[in-house]
C-alpha cells in the first residue's frame, strides 16, 4: 500500500481531472481557457475545508507547467518567501499556492507583494475565512478574482469515489476492492460535500474490510459505523459558523421551521451552546418583537434550561424555542425604531431636555426652572391607565416619529393605542 493517504494521491494533476467546480473552472469557462492558453492569473479560493482548494491549485499547476511551490501561511517564515522570490528571479515566473492566506503576516506580505504585482509570482491563495473580512486588502487587490467554491454534490462525491476505486496507480483499483452502489452512496452522503472526508473514509473502510476469494469486500455494518463517526464541519470562530448563525436567523425570520431546525442542529453539533443561545435571544426581540412579546421570556427560559441541562439535552428546549419563533407573528419595529433614534443622534439631531422633565429631587430645582411636570398616573384615561398631554421630546425634535408599528399579532393592538394617543397629542410641529 502507498505511504501517502488516498486523499493526497487522488488530487487532480490537471484541470481535466477536477471533479465538480465546473461552473468556474470547467472546459467552457474563461479561467480554463486562460490557463490552457498560457495565462494564469493570481486569485483567491474561498471555501470550507475539503472542498477542493488545494486540489484545484495542483490542477492549475499541472495544466500551466509553471514551477510550482506550496506554502502554508501558519508555518512559513520570511526565509521561505525569500527562497520563492529568488526562484522567480531565476525562472522568470513561478506559481505559488499559499494555504491559510488569511494568516499571512505583514513581514511576509512586504517580501512577497511587489513580486506578485510585477507578475513574477502568480499567487493562488486559499482560505476558509471570508476574504473580505480576514484577508489583507493589499493581497486582495493583487488577486484579480475571488472564487467562492461550492460544496461538492453527492453526485460529485460518488464520481470521485468511483474514480478512486478504478484507478490502478493512485487509487484502489489494483486491490480488487468492491463496493455496492448503495455502499458508495452511503459514503458519499456521510462526507457531506467534503472530498477529503470521502476519500479518507473510503480508505478506512478498505483497511477494515475482509478479503474473500481474492476480492476485498466491505461489510455494511462497518461502513455504517465508520460513516456515523464523521464529524460535522465547522468551528466556533470560523466564517462557516457565522454563516450558520445567519442562516438560522434568516430561516426563523422567514418562518421556515424545517430549515431553522436544520441550521440549529448543525450549530449544536459544532458545540457552541453559548453563541447559539445568545443569537436565539437576539432573534426573539429583533424579529418577533412586539408582535408576540411573550416570545422573549419564553426563549430566555429555554436558553436558561439549555444552559442547566448542557448538550445533548439542551437541544430539546432550544428546538422548542426555534419552532415557537418560526410560527410566531413577527415585527422588527423595535429595532428599526431604536436604530432610527441612534441615527438621529449621530446626525446631530439633538436638543435640550425640556425643563419639566429634568431631575427635580433636590433643593434649588425650582430656582433652575425644573418645574411643570404632570404625573400621568394622576389623570386616568379609560382602561389604559394614566396619560396627560405634555411635551417629552426636545423642542428641536417635536413631532419626530422613530417608531412605525407593524400590524401583526399583539402589536396590532399596541398600534391602535399608539395612533389613538397621537390623535390626543397637541405638541406637533
Automatic annotation (TrEMBL):
Matching Gene3D superfamilies: 1.10.8.60, 1.20.272.10, DNA polymerase III clamp loader subunits, C-terminal domain (1.10.3710.10), P-loop containing nucleotide triphosphate hydrolases (3.40.50.300)
InterPro entries to which the protein is assigned, alphabetical: AAA+_ATPase, AAA_assoc_2, AAA_ATPase_RarA/MGS1/WRNIP1, ATPase_AAA_core, DNA_pol3_clamp-load_cplx_C, MgsA_C, P-loop_NTPase
Entry's Gene Ontology molecular function annotations: ATP binding; ATP hydrolysis activity; DNA binding; enzyme activator activity; single-stranded DNA helicase activity
Keyword field: ATP-binding, Nucleotide-binding
One of the GO BP terms on file: DNA-templated DNA replication
Family affiliation: Belongs to the AAA ATPase family. RarA/MGS1/WRNIP1 subfamily.
PANTHER family registered for this protein in UniProt: ATPASE WRNIP1, WERNER HELICASE-INTERACTING PROTEIN 1 FAMILY MEMBER
Protein name: Recombinase RarA
